[in-house]
Amino acid sequence: MDEPDGALTQIVPGASKTSAPGHPYSGLAKPPARDAILSQTGAIDLTVRPGNSSIAFYLGLISRTGASKGEIGGSKMALRHTFVTACLNMGLSVAKQSDLAAVKRFVSELHPVTTDLPMTRFGSKGDGGYVMPDDLEGVVACFSPGVDNRATFETSMIERGIPCFLADASVEAAPVQGDMVHFTKKYLGVVNDETTVTLDDWVAQHSPGSGDIVLQMDIEGAEWPVLLNASNETLRRCRIMVLELHDMERLMDKHAFTIIRATFQRLLRDFHVVHIHPNNYGGAVRRGAFVIPRAIEITLLRKDRAKPTGYATQFPHPLDQINDQAAPDVVLPEGWRR
Fold first, then answer.
1. Model confidence over 46-77: pLDDT tens digits?
2. Can you tell me the distance from the alpha carbon of 4 to that of 13, in angstroms, rounded to the nearest whole number?
3. CA distances from 26 to 29, 186, 212, 244 (A)
4. Which of 16, 103, 105, 207 is the most exposed place for a label (fewest CB within 10 A)?
5. What would the pLDDT profile of 95-114 be if each residue is shown by its tens digit?
6. What is the 3-state secondary structure (H, E, C) of the chain?
7. Using omega within 30 degrees of 0 as the cis cutoff, is the peptide bond preceding 225 cis?
8. Hey, what long-range contacts does 127-130 have (CB within 8 A, 24 or more apart)?
9. CATH 3.40.50 domain locations along the chain
């Protein structure tokens, strides 16, 4: 059965990587089992059929949740409120959709450029390894918030003589030890308190000298407020940024799109996108024919380091590796390319 163009649908199975339960870097909660939903809602049918108007869909949903005509009041706004309430009680989020044309224009700006700098994979061949320019001469430190049970990327930096600074409140220590490893038991956030530290303060407190740094960030969705909160001075100290971007399906959420686009309006003033690779742990969703990977790895290079020589044409990049070997790969969709 074909789906209406307005449906946002999961098309590639995958589970987001999570950290310790309940902390700010945790991914989306696992959806409740189907039987649990049915027991709570009386077997609500959430199938959207071609030809159904949104009002008819609301009525069908509301009729099965026990809302009376008096509660509906014949008002379209009341229908929306009841529909949103029903979804919230099933653990679903409802939001106004973004303008699809605006989303398409935005993601096309993320098409990677090529430069004269060689690209190298740092870290493991699977999850935890990243592709970035081999331009590390003079880099004084690598800052890597979000700690996993391995540190292959950080180890590759140490092998180049670059000290690494790690931060995460959900673990007791870094998975790699040594004189060049420095661990802070805090999350990155937008304030400084007992459990969080801002990117500005973390870098200022620990960076050896005032030279360029590498920022490798995988903090399960907290990257958006952290990057927006960072000062221009701190961001411009980053010669290279390697970011895991989460919840990219929220591009189709009107308010989340505003935040995501604002983040990149800041970053793209000073950085080129030089690599992008969907992380197949998150799978992908689609809005009509437009496909959105739910998590992507993106590498940014400060503009003073190299001039673009063209646009990347090979997807996946020859150095890319599948993150989850047990799941299908997610190739950068056509709609994300110029």
1. 333 333 344 444 445 445 555 555 554 557 77
2. 21
3. 8, 14, 30, 13
4. 105
5. 889 999 999 999 999 999 99
6. CCCCCCCEEEEECCCCCCCCCCCCCCCCCCCCCHHHHHHHHCCCCCCCCCCCCHHHHHHHHHHHHCCCHHHHCCCHHHHHHHHHHHHHHCCCCCCCECCHHHHHHHHHCCCCEECCCCEEEECCCCCCCEEEECCCCCCCEEEEECCCCCCHHHHHHHHCCCCEEEECCCCCCCCCCCCCEEEECCEECCCCCCCEECHHHHHHHHCCCCCCEEEEECCCCCHHHHHHHCCHHHHHHEEEEEEEECCHHHHHEHHHHHHHHHHHHHHHHHEEEEEEEECCCCCEEEECCEEEECCEEEEEEEHHHCCCCEECCCCCCCCCCCCCCCCCCCCCCHHHCC
7. no
8. 127/17, 127/279, 127/281, 127/323, 127/324, 128/152, 128/153, 129/153, 129/321, 130/216, 130/242, 130/297, 130/299
9. 100-336
Span 235-251, average pLDDT: 97
AA identity, residue 37: I
Residue 59: other Cβ atoms inside 10 A: 18
Give the position of tokens 């949104």: 54
Specify the pairing of strand 238-245 against strand 296-302: antiparallel
pLDDT at 22 over 70: no
Q: Take residue 269 and report the two structure tokens written for it.
A: 């003033």
Closest CA to 295 of 309, 281, 275, 305: 281
Token readout for 281 is 């742990």
Residue located via tokens 């990327």: 153
Measured between alpha carbons, how far is 7 from 284 in angstroms, rounded to an integer?
14
Among residues 190, 266, 279, which one has the least CA distance to residue 233?
266
Q: Which residue has the tokens 């699977």?
A: 126
Give the Cα separation of 325 and 25 in Å (integer): 23
> What CATH fold (topology level) applies to the domain 100-336?
Rossmann fold (3.40.50)
